[in-house]
Hints:
51% helix
Amino acid sequence: MSEPLQHSPGPFTFHRNGWYIEDSEGNPIAEVNSAFPGDGQIFAAAPDMLRLLRVLSEMSESGADTKDEWYVWRDAMHESKALIARLDGAE
């Protein structure tokens, strides 16, 4: 497997008033040019989505054989549901 691509450090923040995304260090990394504010929120959530996908992918490969692994999987599922709710505008 190849090395993961490098990206700006997350978490990202979407600034709707200026329609741009900032990295965790406050550096602007992208401009959002869309009629849909949700596009910026999805872009800003990319680091969280990638992290959760990695956790869930690793868990699916290894299985939740121990109680600790099951808790990791459960927590990732709760975070995933909260992230979906946030992207759907519930927060």
